[in-house]
Structure formats: structure tokens, C-alpha cells
Amino acid sequence: MQSAHLKQALVAHQIERLKETYRDFVVDDATRTLGTFFFDRIYSAQGKDKRDADFKRMYDTFKERLGDDIADQLGKLVHVNALTDQLDEVVVAKMEASGVDGTFTNEQYERAYRETDVYDERSEQIELLCDSMVFFHTISHWRSMSLALKVIKLVARLKGAKELANFLDEGYRAFRTVPEIGLFRETVYEREFIRLNRIYRLAQEPRPVASRARAGTRRATR
Q: pTM of the entire structure?
């Protein structure tokens, strides 16, 4: 019970951090809808477990209606969610081991974040999220996507996946509010890596996941 309470507090803390880090996007009329969707709905724990379970249950339907590429990209988003959950869990475990309860300071949070020693996984999380946003922005502007999404939403609701249907609809509408995604993607990438390296006390530029494979192996064996 204590772990669940602490995780709720952790998620709330991180949502507020995201909103503060990207306040300029949230308050800007041109990017408010997309910013709110990205830094609240995607990470919010509300309805996420059922949404992800429904997606896995309906994966074959997505492939049939949307094609392999789009279904696989949606699968990557589910993977990002699962990875985020895992990373949250290890921070919660580290906090509990340090005697932290549901009330914690940002300093205590960042110490636990750093001491979990999962830099490679954090980097993968950022890169997958940024790659996904570019892909979904692209397909949101396809003329055929509106019709395909209507069919998917209908099928999802008929199969009891209302939360998933609503999430897909919100995402489609949010991405369509911005004509270009480049600045948004680059800003997220840069700010998240600057923060990650600051917490890990590293003075280095972001590197592709592949180039960190050996470093990850060394970390796992030490």
C-alpha cells in the first residue's frame, strides 16, 4: 500500500515537473493543445493500464485497419509507457529503501532518480518518445487517417475499449493543431537530455542509444 501511495505521489510530481519544464508550450495558444496532451494525457496514470491492455488485445485489428507500420508505432508507444512504469517503480523502490514516504523534496527525488543508475534506459525513453511524436504528427496530416480513425474508434468502442478510442481521437486532434513538429521535438529532446545529464552529473552531449550499448553492459556488470 505504501508503494502505491508513493508511486502516485511520484507520478504527480513528475507531471508537474513536465508542465513546468514545458510551460512555454502549454501557455502558447499555438501549442497548448499538443503540449497538454503530451505532458498530461500520455503520462497520466488515469485510464492508462486499461488503455494499454485494450491496445494489446486489439493489435491485430489495428494492423488490419491501419497497416503494420502504424500498428507497430502504436506498439512502441505502449512500450514507452511500460518502460516509464518500470523506471518509476525503481525510483519508488530506491526512495522506500532510503526511508522516503509520500512527502518528498525534489532533492530526495533526484537523488533516488540518479542512484537507480539506469541512464541507458532513460535515454531510450526520451528517444523513443521523440521518434513517436514525429511519426504520429506525420500520419495525423494524412487525408486517409481521418476515415481510418473513425473506423478504429467505432470498433474500439464496440469492443469495450472506450478509453483507447478517446485517447487516439485526442492524440489525432492534438497533433493536427501544429503544422510543424520539428521545434517541439527538438526542444523536448534537448531539455530532457540536459536534465538527465544534470541529474547524473554528466557533462556530455546526448548520444544515440546504439553508441551507449557498451556503457550499458559495463554498468550492468559492475
A: 0.80
